[in-house]
Amino acid sequence: MTDGIIARTTTITGHGGDEIEAYLAHPLDGDAQPSVVVLHHMPGYDRASKEIARTFAVYGYAALMPNLHHRYAPGAKATDAAAAAREAGGVPDEQCLGDVQAAVDALRARPESNGKVGAIGYCSGGRQSWIVACTLDVDAAVDCYGGRADPALAPDLRCPLLGLFGEEDQSPSPDDVAAMAKALDEAGKDYEFHSYEGAGHAFFSVDRPAYRVDAAKDGWKRIWAFFGERLQGG
Amino acid sequence: MCTYVTTTAAVAGSAYDGEEWFGVDRAVVYFDHPQDAPVDHALCVDVWGGAARVAIELDAASARRLAEAILATLDHDEVAALTG
What we know:
The structure holds two protein chains of two kinds.
Chain A: E1 5-13, E2 19-27, E3 33-39, H1 47-58, E4 62-66, H2 78-87, H3 93-109, E5 113-122, H4 124-133, E6 140-144, E7 161-166, H5 174-186, E8 191-196, H6 213-231
Parallel strand pairs in A: 3-4, 3-5, 5-6, 6-7, 7-8
Antiparallel strand pairs in A: 1-2, 2-4
Chain B: E1 6-16, E2 21-32, E3 42-49, E4 52-58, H1 60-75, H2 77-83
Antiparallel strand pairs in B: 1-2, 2-3, 3-4
């Protein structure tokens, strides 16, 4: 075991056949690696989101994060691409799903893959992870405080779901989370939600005032347990 | 919270990016997580001219002060006489 990882920008063929950049991080060791698609937050394909991908690699996962803003400003800094995507009206869900499917395919095609792929997203990416879990063939999904997620999709959930939320968040609010849980209960789906007292939106973000160390530490533990049970082996 | 509350205004004039001036035609205003400002949410303004952009991120109170300063300036008697 080298205990090493490698991380770099690569290219995938996303929705509509568009070539988009994606950030790939994976362990150097292991021939049966589980995989995760990382969905970045609204500020974009930034340093903090790439750090999350590298963290997955440190824990033994191959992580691929498509730049959902790439089309709007190819080659631009994350901050400019995010602004360009917003100015264009935001990323359509259908386009996001096409890009995520391409990332799933790329991860499963790696010779070192064990064939299992999860999805995780933060903020706007949390909502996108929810839509992915209800639409695409992934093995597990994590929604980290995705606001504006539609509970009506609950009957379509296709994989186990972990939701991590802050009780002081306004989007998703505790009522929004309760509505999601109710819909999932009624649909008889496999899910677990955790809402952290004293935490609001973006409590995983170590470089923002919203960071809450206790919530973030417990959240990461739950992510490793959840993905470990569902993505490792195979 | 991701508010997605975005308002776009047509504007005319120029902006300076630290190296050169460029013509601008639209301003996108939103309240969301900032890229850099040390607050959970910020009032953000992107002023665009083609693909060129200048951006600011302000906490809500200072954004309001800026808006009030702009309006106070435009509403000043001497300015109002010039702008009609």
